[in-house]
């Protein structure tokens, strides 16, 4: 077990490079199953979640070569034979369920246990299953296992009752090799879905409507292996933006798609943070006095739920009252109790948190309860008086590449120690 020890109060300076998006890379790695050929993922973020999904593919028979120095992963899925995956691997990470679509598409059947992942809500898979059934598959749920089988997938029109990111991706991947045309209505529009569609199209798929809520997929006979570099991680970029805001610093962030991060920039601008974009670079200035704001998490292009906890750390130190309403996950306020240990004044009222900003947080012993909650605690620690010790940092390692090195490079006093 490891923990972070962070000494608060530093002013940040210099620049930070953003890695490729975890949430883009996971479905792309799952999609390599579809071609049964060799694919190369360039500038791949070396993260725990990436190792879990590559372990899933390996356990099925794929050959995987991870080059950590070049940040490149070569995946050869031609040898995949197994139609069942160990439940331990799938329970470790919800993203593993993204192999279901590609597996039934290529092999006609797959069995796995119900997925795990961050403990932020019930996280059902009904919309994924609705999509598979609409494409003609039979779905059986038995003793915690999901078994999907079909002799042939046939294109269909599917309306998603909620624009689920994972369901949109899984259905899209199961439809690319189906016979005929599939239309996904009320599809999620997150940039990572666009990136997966772009990856599939470069492999030979025919997907249109990318970036809209209606995706049209015309089935093709087969797909080819390719080399691909995924998009930058908008959530990592947003986390560093808040690092600048919470420490009243000016830093440079390299590797930003301005369009993808628009909702976060809009809210931070409303608070008084300064932005200067130049291509994929950003100079962010958090030195102004900041104003409280209200935020509601929404599907893209709304404010991302994955930035909610980090925003709460910032608002905890901005004088005045702010309200954050979480509409995506019902249990995503676990960081509140930890922030309160650091002196934050936050009250939860149903799906909303009312934050009365205070002048200064105090360093404390806290626990990362999930990935983004962990990021929120790091941010709070940057502002806090004295030292903060953050436990259970394996959650943070799931989604932030070498976060302590990136923070040290911009002047943060942070150490990773065994505990
Ligand atoms: C993805 C992201 C996660 C992000 C989330 C929302 C990945 C690997 N993870 O998770 O970081 O927080 O999008 O932006 O990309 N739902 C159903 N039925 C379903 C599926 C989902 O009711 O079949 C509900 C969920 O309970 C939740 C909401 O839809 O309330 C959003 O979930 P979803 O968009 O599916 O999130 P994930 O794909 O799991």
Describe this structure in words.
The protein is of the alpha+beta class and 419 residues long. It folds into two domains: 204 residues, UDP-n-acetylglucosamine1-carboxyvinyl-transferase, Chain, CATH 3.65.10.10; 207 residues, Alpha-beta prism (UDP-n-acetylglucosamine1-carboxyvinyl-transferase, Chain), CATH 3.65.10. The chain contains 14 helices and 23 strands. The strands form six sheets. The chain has a four-stranded mixed β-sheet, covered by helices on one side. It has a four-stranded mixed β-sheet with strand order 2-14-16-15. The chain is globular. The termini are close together. The structure holds uridine-diphosphate-N-acetylglucosamine. Belongs to the EPSP synthase family. MurA subfamily. One of its GO terms (biological process) is peptidoglycan biosynthetic process. This is UDP-N-acetylglucosamine 1-carboxyvinyltransferase.
Compile the SSE list and pairings.
Layout: E1 2-7, E2 15-17, H1 22-31, E3 38-41, H2 48-60, E4 63-67, E5 72-76, H3 87-92, H4 100-107, E6 109-113, H5 126-134, E7 138-142, E8 145-149, E9 157-159, H6 165-175, E10 181-185, H7 191-203, E11 206-208, E12 214-218, E13 227-228, H8 234-246, E14 250-254, H9 262-271, E15 274-278, E16 281-285, E17 294-296, H10 308-316, E18 320-325, H11 334-341, E19 345-349, E20 352-357, E21 365-367, H12 371-383, E22 387-391, H13 394-397, H14 403-409, E23 413-418
Parallel strand pairs: 2-14, 3-13, 9-10, 17-18, 21-22
Antiparallel strand pairs: 1-22, 1-23, 3-5, 4-5, 6-8, 7-8, 10-12, 11-12, 14-16, 15-16, 18-20, 19-20
The chain binds uridine-diphosphate-N-acetylglucosamine (UD1).
Uridine-diphosphate-N-acetylglucosamine is lined by residues 23, 26, 94-95, 121-128, 162, 164-167, 188, 192, 305-306, 328-329.
InterPro entries: Enolpyruvate_Tfrase_dom (IPR001986), Enolpyruvate_Tfrase_sf (IPR036968), MurA_subfamily (IPR050068), RNA3'P_cycl/enolpyr_Trfase_a/b (IPR013792), UDP_GlcNAc_COvinyl_MurA (IPR005750)
Enzyme class: transferase
Domain Enolpyruvate transferase: 7-407
């Amino acid at each position: 077990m490891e923990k972070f020890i962070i000494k608060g109060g530093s002013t940040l300076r210099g620049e930070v490079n953003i890695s490729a998006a975890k949430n883009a890379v996971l479905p792309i790695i799952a999609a390599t199953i579809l071609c049964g050929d060799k694919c190369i993922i360039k500038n791949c973020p070396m993260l725990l979640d990436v190792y879990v999904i590559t372990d899933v593919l390996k356990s099925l028979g794929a050959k995987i070569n991870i080059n950590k120095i070049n940040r490149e992963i070569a995946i050869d899925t031609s040898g995949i034979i197994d139609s069942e995956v160990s439940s331990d691997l799938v329970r470790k990470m919800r993203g593993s369920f993204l192999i279901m679509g590609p597996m039934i598409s290529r092999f006609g059947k797959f069995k796995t246990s119900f997925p795990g992942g961050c403990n932020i809500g019930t996280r059902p898979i009904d919309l994924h299953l609705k999509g598979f059934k609409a494409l003609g598959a039979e779905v059986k749920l038995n003793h915690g296992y999901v078994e999907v089988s079909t002799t042939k997938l046939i294109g269909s029109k599917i309306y998603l009752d909620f624009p689920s990111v994972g369901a949109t991706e899984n259905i899209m991947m199961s439809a690319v090799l189906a016979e005929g045309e599939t239309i996904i209505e009320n599809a999620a529009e997150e940039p990572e879905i666009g990136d997966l569609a772009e990856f599939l199209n470069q492999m030979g798929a025919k997907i249109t409507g990318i970036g809209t809520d209606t995706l049209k997929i015309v089935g093709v006979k087969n797909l080819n292996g390719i080399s691909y570099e995924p998009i930058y991680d908008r959530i990592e970029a947003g986390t560093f933006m808040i690092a600048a805001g919470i420490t009243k610093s000016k830093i440079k962030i390299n590797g930003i798609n301005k369009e993808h991060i628009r909702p976060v920039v809009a809210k931070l601008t409303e608070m008084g943070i300064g932005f200067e974009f130049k291509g994929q670079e950003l100079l962010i200035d958090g030195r102004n006095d900041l104003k409280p704001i209200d935020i509601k998490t929404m599907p893209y292009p709304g404010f991302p739920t994955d930035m909610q906890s980090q925003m709460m750390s910032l608002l905890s130190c901005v004088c005045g009252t702010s309200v954050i309403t979480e509409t995506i996950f019902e249990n995503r306020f676990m960081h509140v109790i930890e922030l309160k240990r650091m002196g934050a004044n936050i009250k939860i009222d149903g799906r909303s948190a009312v934050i009365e900003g205070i002048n200064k947080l105090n360093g404390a012993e806290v626990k990362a309860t999930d990935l983004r909650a962990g990021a929120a605690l790091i941010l709070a620690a940057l502002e806090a008086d004295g030292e903060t010790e953050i436990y259970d940092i394996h959650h943070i390692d799931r989604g932030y590449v070498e976060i302590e090195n990136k923070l040290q490079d911009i002047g943060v006093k942070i150490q990773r120690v065994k505990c």
